[in-house]
Amino acid sequence: MVSRMRMLIWHCARFEYQPTEKALKNVEDIEKKRMVFENVLVVLATVEQEDTEDIVDVVRDELVGMMREVNAERILLYPYAHLSPDLAPPERAKKILDMILRGIRELGVEVHAAPFGYYKEFVAWVKGHPLAERSRVITKDEVMVVRRKGEKKYVIVTPDGRELEPSRKILKRFHREFRILVRKEALGEALAEKEHKMLEFLKRFGFEWENRSDFGHERLNPYAAIIFDLAVDYSRKVIRELGIPIYEVKGTAFFNLSDDAVKEHADLYGDRLYKIRTDRGSFVLRYAACHQQFSMLGDWYISYRNMPFGIFEVADSYRYEKSGEVELVFRLRRFWMPDLHIIVRDEEEAKKMLLNVHDKIMDESKKFGQEYELLVNVVSPEQYERYRDFIVEIARRINKPVLVAIYPPLGLSYYWTINIEYHIIDYLDRPREIGTVQIDIGNAKRFNITYVDADGEKKYPVILHTAIIGTIERFIYMLFDSAMKRMGDGGKPMLPYWISPIQVRIIPVSEVAMDYAREIMEKLRKARVRVDIDDTNRTLSRKILDAEREWIPYIVVIGERELRERTVTVRSRKDGKQETMSIDEFLEILKNEQNDFPWREPYTPQYMSVRIKYP
């Protein structure tokens, strides 16, 4: 458990203190008189960097309970900065202590507070019973128990607007993939463990853990690196197809937890915060591009004429996932988020834009042989009533049911109203969240993001959060999952042509054909094809086997006949067919395969004989 607030608590027969001088310059002047209390619960309290206003109710209830337990007549809150080296900024510390004071007073309990920001001398007569001296650390777990106020409720919403309570019996009427989602999310069933064969292929392509780093940090060998970079390029292409202006930015991953806006937003992630300390204080490593983009937007001059628009960054992101739960290319402590925030005028415009984003997310999954199942989260029962018709519209658009999670009232102070998770059901029959979109009504005010409307008034916009293709790593996971499903259906596993590290491998049968092989390679290179030559001193069958192991889409074999006829013999991985054709005919096939997808030069030498072997 992570500490939240530290206290030293004494039950005193008598306690006296007197302020001596200011410890902080900006505190108000007070009369420095001696104060005396009898039969008092003295609470020496340190407000730490991690503490926020959500600690107030827990501390209030804890202190009142202690006071009654020892039959004290009153409580004295005594600011005491010596219990921790990790202090909150003075303004926040005083605010939290004042809130605790008011909270106790509202319960009808006599409570006092020693002045904040002063050095004080004191004398304490602590009673001698077993409960007279105690220390207390309020934890995040305790805060979460108070904040939760109940459990999420799940409901199935059908395209015709019906609401159904999830159960094993009712699931029989729905398709298999949706049943798996509901069983896992709503019914809490543990799904059967199966052999995770994808890991073998991921490692073959160069995705590995970096064992000299923290848990959940990857390293990418050349094939993995180009797959990653092409996925990043594709994420940029996809967001620009939404038809709105896009502003791409770059920024830092470090944000200061002493900043109230950063702190309030970060606290919603609880123990998943990835933190570091420097000589300037405690910092959170961003878990998406939110902090950086919101900090920028707060400095921009935005008019209603500029809206809607998007702000985008492929952001290195950090979440402190449990070490036993990290998973290669899926659940990481450091990952990359192609994070798009769309700025709109109000909630109604946000709903219209969300539907456009939703359609785009669904279309993208279908391009790669996947079909999403939807988990729609709404922040409260009241918001569910407001968004019910909108949720039905989403179900109609996909012509299948959606699972809705309704958060309990008086729960966490979320900044969003509705959040949609897009899950594939992977080859191991597990729901795997890939894409997301949500409507944010809180962060514009928190980060002071405003726009000027047609009447010249400043207003807070509404913000859509989305990573249309998911994190870069999860997008790659989805592509490999499609390959695994293809293999399960009896086909050969393969990646899409445009993202395959090598798209064409040329295999000359003998040294006689080498010059012609080089000529073909140069023509393909000029036509933007990632091509290499296996010029190693090995058998033809071994060369073909290695190309097959690398899932290379097209293998070109060059022998004496091809040299004589100026043709190429092409073996296609997709359909297993082998055909002899002219180079121009082959180039036309490759041009259609590449289409308008992103392309990069290969990240490895073009001659296999000089290529370094790596694990």
Task: Please give a structural write-up.
This protein is α+β, with helices and mostly antiparallel strands and 615 residues long. It has three domains: 3-148, D-tyrosyl-tRNA(Tyr) deacylase (D-tyrosyl-trna(Tyr) Deacylase, Chain: A, 3-Layer(bba) Sandwich), CATH 3.50.80; 153-480, BirA Bifunctional Protein, domain 2 (2-Layer Sandwich); 497-610, Anticodon-binding domain (Rossmann fold, 3-Layer(aba) Sandwich). Strands 8-7-19-18-20-21-24-17-16-11 form a ten-stranded mixed β-sheet. Strands 1, 2, 3, 4, 5 and 6 form a six-stranded mixed β-sheet that branches. The chain is elongated. The chain starts with a strand and ends in a 21-residue tail after the last helix.
